[in-house]
Amino acid sequence: MTANALLPVVRTVAEVRAVVRDWKRQGLTVGMVPTMGALHEGHLTLVREAARRADRVVASNFVNPTQFAPHEDLSRYPRRQEEDARLLAGAGCHMMFAPAADEMYPEQFATSIAVAGPALGLEGDFRPQMFGGVALVVTKLFNQVQPDLAIFGEKDYQQLMVIRRFVRDLDLPIEIVAAPTERDAAGLALSSRNEYLSEGQLAVARRLNQILAEAAEAAAAGRPLPGVERDAYSAILKAGFERIDYVAVRQAEDLSVFRDGVVDGPARILAAAWLGKTRLIDNRAV
Question: Cβ(154)–Cβ(180) under 8 Å?
């Protein structure tokens, strides 16, 4: 175990298991917040929620290579573990688990997880490797830490649905808690990738939330969804985004399509769009 000035940092599975085992011997509950580091206020809100619900909180800090395609931003994804540890300590975290890649995926690692259901479509169409990689690393983290509950943000809504599904399907004894998306004063969803954006791009990015909110109102009013999606698509391009992967209204529980083309129950509108080399995602409840 190494130590930040305020927060213990463990780097091996054996270490994290030993600490958590000792906590559980004392009758303490354990919450977990899986992250890829480069922490911002959105992550810290998840940590605070975990601290509210559990006696001890573990935050993982691991940029997971199995969810990145070769052309994606794995190599440039921001990494600053010392600063992350300081922020976690201030948010009420009790331990940061920051393994190296070869600790998580040792030589001759040969296992994968296939996911379907809510993993199909949307992000699954444009990042087909992502959810298998997420399912693999989150399952490993849950096995390593064995938390009683884990907190995930609604900003990555499809990921949240996928995690809920495989936790249920694999009978993992962990409560999955959703936390609302944290936004800046203009409504931009907080993301580690926002730091890639220039000031001009940030001004454009802040329009995405507004456009989705307007589209959500139209969908909730009963407007046919093809028109809602088409108008939102046009508005996102007009705002200055360079290309769009998807804009879609789906059923909130499982991200399936509304068969009659209108909202008749809880729904989400989800979008992914590009500014330069930066891909942003967001969603709103309908």
Answer: yes
- What local confidence, expressed as pLDDT, does residue 5 receive? 56
Tokens of 283: 């969603």
Catalytic residue among 40, 43, 71, 94: 43
Say how far apart CA 16 and CA 205 lie, in whole Å: 38
Look up the pTM and report it.
0.94
Residues 6 or more apart from 193 whose CB is under 8 A from it?
73, 278, 279, 280
Rounded CA-CA distance 99/141 in Å is: 10
- CA nearest neighbour of 158 among 187, 183, 178: 178
Q: Using CA atoms in the order 259, 260, 261, 262, what is the torsion angle rounded to 10 degrees? A: -120
Q: Please name every residue paired with 249 in a beta bridge, in sequence order, or none if there are none.
A: 269
Q: For residue 275, what are its two tokens?
A: 């500014």
Give which of 238, 245, 235, 230 is closest to 279, Cα–Cα.
245
Provide the pLDDT confidence category of residue 6 given band limits of 50, 70 and 90: confident
Q: Residue 239 in contact with residue 204, Cβ under 8 Å?
A: yes
* Catalytic residue check, 43: yes
pLDDT (tens digit per residue) in 58-89: 999 999 999 988 877 778 787 889 999 999 99
Sign of CA dihedral 152, 73, 100, 82: negative
pLDDT tens digits, 183-220 = 999 999 999 899 899 999 999 999 999 999 999 999 99
DSSP H helices, the chain, are 13-25, 41-53, 81-91, 101-104, 123-126, 130-145, 157-169, 199-220, 225-239
- Statement: residue 32 has pLDDT above 90: yes
